[in-house]
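As promised in the previous annual report, we have extended the structural survey to additional targets. Below is the entry for Thaumatin-like protein.
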Amino acid sequence: MASLSLAKSSALLLAVALAVAVSADAITFNVINHCQDTLWPAALPGGGAALDPGKTWTFEVPAGTAHARVWARTGCHFDGGGRGACETGDCGGALACAVSGTPPATLAEYTLGNPDYVDISLVDGFNVPMSFQCAGKGPSCAADVNARCPGELKVPGGCDSACAKFGGDTYCCQGQFKDQCPPTNYKFFKGLCPDAYSYAKDDQTSTFNCPQGANYDIVLCP
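The corresponding C-alpha cell record, generated without further manual editing, is:
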C-alpha cells in the first residue's frame, strides 16, 4: 500500500510540475472592449466569447504559436448551446470559433517566436477599430473606416476589401501580381490606418516586433 501511495504522490507531483511548466510558457492575451456595444471577440487559437462594453476577455496560447489571429464579431445572436450567427466575422455559426471569420473583419495577426511578429490587417476588410500592443507599443487602427468606406465596398456592419468584392489578380495580389501589387483606388485603408496592412504585400510598414514572452492587449475601439 505504501508503494502505491508513493506512486500516486509522484504522479501528482509530476502533473503539477507539468501544469506549472505549461502555465509558465503560456502567453496571455487581453481583449478589451472600449466600444459602446457588446462585441463577440474570436481567436484562433482561443475560441470566442461575448464581451460587454468596458469588459475584458482573457485567454492564453502556448509560446511558439504561429500564424494565429484575433478579430471582433458584430451583430451576433447565440442560443444556449453556443450556436447562432454574426453580421460580421462569423465563424461557421459558433460562439467558440474553430475556423476563421468571414470578411469583413479587422484582424490582429501574430507569430510568437524570437522576437514575436504582430500586425493589424485590413486585407479582409474592416469592421471594428483595433489596437494590438505589448507594453504599450504596437500597431493601431483607431479610425472609423466604416464611415469613410466607398459606397461600392459598404456592407452591413463593415467595409469590404476590394479582393473580396471584386476578386481578380489585381485586387487580390495574386497571379502575375503575386510578388508586387499594383496601385488601385482601394488602398484608402492605408491613409486612414497607416500601421495596418491594406494589401497582401504591405510588410515593410505594417509588421511590428515584440520581445519573446511578451503578453498582449488587443483594444477594440482604442
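The chain is about 20% helix and 25% strand. The CA atoms of residues 2 and 8 lie 10 Å apart. These points will be discussed at the next consortium meeting with the crystallography subgroup.
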